[in-house]
Amino acid sequence: MDIAYIPSPSRGVLHLGPIPLRAYAFCIILGVVAAVWLGSKRWVARGGAKHTVGDIAVWAVPFGLVGGRLYHVITDHQLYFGEGKNPWNAFKIWEGGLGIWGAVALGAVGAWIGCRRRGVPLPAYADAIAPGIVLAQAMGRWGNYFNQELYGRATTLPWGLEIHKTLPDGEVVNGVFHPTFLYESIWDVAVALLVIWADRRWKLGHGRAFALYVAAYTVGRFWTEWLRIDEAHVYFGLRLNDWTSIVVFIGAVAYLVIVGKKRPGREDPASIDPAAHVEAEAAGEKAADEKAVAGKAAAAKAKGEGPSETVAGDKPSRIVDGDGRAEADPQPAAAASAAAEKTGKDAENPI
Question: Which of 68, 69, 82, 331 yields a CA-CA distance of 20 to 30 A from 102?
């Protein structure tokens, strides 16, 4: 029954005065936020600092967007160049067209630059961010829904997608098609869960969690690509992205096997992020100050003395004795050492 079909969106853009708010861009932004959030939690669990993932993403995300667009324009150049085509349309990223292969490749270059600046090993960073990347892809695919693009073959299945649109050449499309955006979105969420589970189970390190994500994603991309009917280059009966999926899958599996034998296990939590040591030292100093204040207050109370004189603020930061001389804080070094030892304590069980 038609009532069960997935309806087309009524529009893909809202206007706030003269400012267009495009659903495609909104889906991409949500994906980036989700990737940074999940990646940060995993990075901290591995022993890294809280803001490292976000700082490196400042480099990786712009590179990834440029790479994704370049891959699309290069592999679908016939849409933008040639007789009757407008090359300036290649810059209209809001109309859709981001190739994941280019996004990952050039995004990795941006991540490498950010990692170099932070003193972070790229494979460890890639492992932490991998589930977040594929989760971002799951969200980004909904942008294709709002743009009514990249759907599959015609279908009579109850979850078919209704399409009502006019193509740039004037052709009108009306029908029910496979919702390949939905298939890939669900697959991407499953891949994210798979990587998280496998990482907990086998403590994947040295880029192996990222390789698992790539290998699993390409399997799903192969069959969704096979269903699609949008214009694409075909070689030996397969679309270009199908061949790319095959090549990338083989490379990812080979990396998993080779690195798994040469470098099993995971990186030492103390070696992956210099900023984590700075945070640990700051936390140790704060803990030492708080312990000193608590000790002074307890000693004063035991002696039956009045309220301690404090310096600045509601919380006492230093106890001052009767003759006005500040007393030394007891055992700051021991407290700092104890706090520093907590760095990376959750590295064995990251999210």
Answer: 82
Task: Read off the tokens for 241.
Answer: 């992205």
3-state class (DSSP) for residue 158:
coil
Element (H, E) at 21: strand 19-22
| Nearest alpha carbon to residue 119 among 48, 40, 181, 65 | 48
Containing H/E element for 262?
Answer: helix 240-262
Residue 59 exposed, middle or buried by CB count within 10 Å (0-12, 13-18, 19+):
buried
Length of the chain: 351
> Which two three-digit tokens encode residue 129?
């961010």
CB 6 within 8 A of CB 160: yes
Buried b (16+ CB within 10 A) or exposed e, 325-334: eeeebeebee
Overall pTM > 0.85: no
